[in-house]
Amino acid sequence: MSNLKPRIRTIHAVILMLLAFSTNSVLSAQPIDSAAVIQRIDNSALARIDHVLSYTVVEHYSIYRNGDENHSAAEMTVKTLYQKGVGKSYTILSQSGSSILQKLVLAPLLDNEKTINQPGNVEKSWFTSSNYEMNLKAGVTQKMNGHDCLGIDIAPKHKAPNMLNGTLWVDANDGSIVEIDGVASRSPSMFSGPAKMLRQYANMNGFAMATHARAESDSMVFGRTILTIDYSDYQVQLRPNP
Q1: How far apart are CA 199 and CA 135, in angstroms?
Q2: CA 96 to chain centre
Q3: Are residues 133 and 21 in the same domain?
Q4: Residues 10 and 99 in one domain
Q5: Do 2 and 45 share a structural domain?
Q6: What is the pLDDT along the chain (242 residues), one digit of tens a residue?
Q7: Do 191 and 87 share a structural domain?
Q8: Does residue 137 share a domain with residue 172?
């Protein structure tokens, strides 16, 4: 009898583990509320907009041509200052490589970013349901950068070079952006087709900030071109808690 009791306790423990596993399986199999997920995405985006008063970040731009991603054709490092209600400004820290690419690709890119981020314009590019049609990819989840992520099909409600048709990957718990990949809804110029774009994010001071971006396009002038942007040294100023 003394040997029987430990065995019974062991069986009870195994049964409890199986019941717990069964319960978790049932919960995970339950359908996800698409409307609730989209609301979390909106809330996360608006919280970031409301709380981030300003930030600085060092951005390193690299251009690669004709499939050679080992040797950049041009590079530029800038320090970016974002101020809520003002927009973005740039200070060039260094640049190298093709002066033509510096002048015709990177300089216009920075000018375009300034324009996009001006008050009255920036609101149109937020990843929210007011700017995008959003549909949850049923049954599609993925582990990304330590996050359990949900995939959202996105289609812009208006076309612009910085608006994407593609997939928005968000944290399943809070709706914050983890990654975006897709194709620009409109070509940036008459000389090239729409760019394929990817942008990755990480949590900085509680909010999603870009860490890496990549754009690939084909141009009549430059051929196949890849642009990468790496973001580092964030300094973020948040709204003080009331």
Answers
A1: 19
A2: 27
A3: no
A4: no
A5: no
A6: 555 454 445 444 444 443 443 333 333 445 678 899 999 999 999 999 999 999 999 999 999 988 788 899 999 999 999 999 999 999 999 999 999 999 988 999 899 899 999 998 899 889 999 999 999 988 778 888 888 999 999 999 987 767 889 999 999 999 999 999 999 876 554 344 568 899 999 999 899 999 999 999 887 666 788 999 999 999 999 998 77
A7: yes
A8: yes
